[in-house]
Write a structure and sequence with these properties.
Elements lengths: L10 H23 L2 H18 L10 H22 L16 H9 L2 H10 L2 H12 L4 H8 L3 H28 L1
Helix pairs in contact: 1-2, 1-3, 2-3, 6-8, 7-8
Length: 180
């Protein structure tokens, strides 16, 4: 199914896989999630993961269809778990919203792109990379782990250490600016 051992499959192989199974994959994701947008995201992530791991897929262990749909199912379950950890709640219409002018003012007073770049550059490359993917790339911990080929715990540890080091560097500056 691949061009060379260890290489990613050709575009034609991937397109054939997508054409054969994308409807079933979407149907499964939609049945599990109940939302079209979430189902589309899950299918996209699943096909990307399948494309990356296709060179190591062993068809003798089961059909390609079963393998792909299990990836979709697992991704959909991850989304459901995330929903349960962060349930959506309606806003109370009787509560006054915060003054919107306060937030941009606070953010602008604490943001300095050049200083952020300096602090990130001072971090070890492994920690800097996961911080950049999380905060500038908008990726989840699971997506970072997939992209970098790392265990999820390693990604979380690097994020925690990187944030801790960045805070340690910035703490004196932030404390000074609060009282200035």
């Amino acid at each position: 199914m691949t061009d060379a051992p260890g290489s990613l499959p050709s575009r034609e192989v991937f397109e054939a896989l997508y054409d054969a199974y994308h409807r079933q994959a979407f149907g499964l994701a939609y049945r599990l999630l109940g939302q079209s947008a979430d189902a589309e995201d899950v299918v996209q992530e699943a096909f990307l993961a399948a494309w990356r791991s296709l060179p190591t897929h062993d068809p003798s262990q089961g059909s390609t269809r079963s393998w792909l749909l299990s990836i979709v199912r697992n991704r959909a379950i991850d989304v459901l778990r995330t929903r349960h950890r962060r349930p959506e709640s309606a806003l109370d219409p009787e509560l006054d919203p915060a003054d919107p002018s306060d937030v941009p003012l606070q953010a602008a007073s604490h943001m300095n792109g050049e200083r952020t770049t300096q602090v990130l550059a001072s971090l070890p490359p492994e920690q800097r990379r996961v911080l950049e993917l999380a905060y500038f790339g908008g990726l989840t911990h699971v997506e970072i782990a997939d992209r970098l080929g790392l265990p999820l715990g390693t990604v979380k540890g690097r994020l925690r250490l990187g944030l801790s080091r960045a805070r340690a560097v910035l703490r004196p500056e932030l404390e000074h600016s609060q009282y200035a």
